Write a sequence for this structure.
């Protein structure tokens, strides 16, 4: 079962709310959040940790478990021998996903998520990160922009699930028919609809997981 929690950050927190929520997360994250310049980035980062905290406490009954979160050498957040999760945000939307599997072959690489706000871009400027097959999928599409974001979020979700981040080049593997193979490891991607105007995909080892989606307000 995959659990999805998301929130919209269209209005800045008041100072009282900001201070209260900031006090609920570990100092490691507080320091990184406070270094961000734009309020949207600071609030997205903060609410991502709040969604994580909520999921750990309510799905797994692990109070204060956010204090156990560590960062892998590739920047992936994880809890040793704990629940698996991933966070993403774009523009005003923040999302956190959890995989509730009890037995996992690799704690660091079982689920990933990427969300992107659809904005006008010149898609050909990014063709260097796509395979020849993916470039053709974009070029031949009736909506090249949406297809670009569809493929992009799939690839990012897979890399985040796989756990190595951009140490694996985006153009070294292809996402086709909602699946991708990285060095013999097969991942499946699943589109989810959360915020209007955004495209989002989850990557898991499961071909057809059940997915629960919940909107949160802070």
């Amino acid at each position: 079962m995959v659990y999805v929690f998301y929130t919209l950050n269209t209005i800045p927190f008041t100072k009282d709310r900001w201070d209260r929520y900031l006090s609920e997360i570990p100092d490691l994250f507080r320091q990184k959040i406070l270094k961000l310049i734009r309020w949207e980035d600071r609030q997205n980062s903060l609410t991502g940790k709040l969604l994580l905290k909520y999921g750990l406490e309510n799905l797994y009954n692990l109070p204060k478990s956010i204090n156990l979160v560590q960062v892998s050498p590739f920047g992936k957040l994880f809890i040793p021998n704990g629940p698996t999760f991933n966070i993403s945000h774009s523009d005003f939307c923040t999302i956190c996903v959890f995989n509730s599997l009890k037995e996992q072959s690799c704690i660091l690489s079982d689920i990933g998520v990427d969300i992107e706000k659809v904005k006008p871009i010149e898609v050909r400027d990014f063709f260097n990160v796509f395979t020849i097959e993916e470039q053709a999928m974009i070029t031949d599409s009736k909506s090249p922009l949406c297809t670009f974001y569809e493929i992009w979020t799939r690839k990012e979700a897979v890399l985040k699930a796989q756990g190595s981040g951009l140490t694996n080049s985006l153009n070294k593997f292809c996402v086709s028919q909602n699946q991708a193979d990285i060095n013999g490891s097969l991942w499946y991607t699943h589109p989810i609809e959360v915020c209007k105007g955004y495209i989002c995909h989850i990557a898991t080892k499961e071909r057809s997981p059940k997915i629960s989606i919940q909107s949160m307000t802070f």
Remarks:
- The longest strand covers residues 185-192.
- The radius of gyration is 17 Å.
- The mean pLDDT is 91.
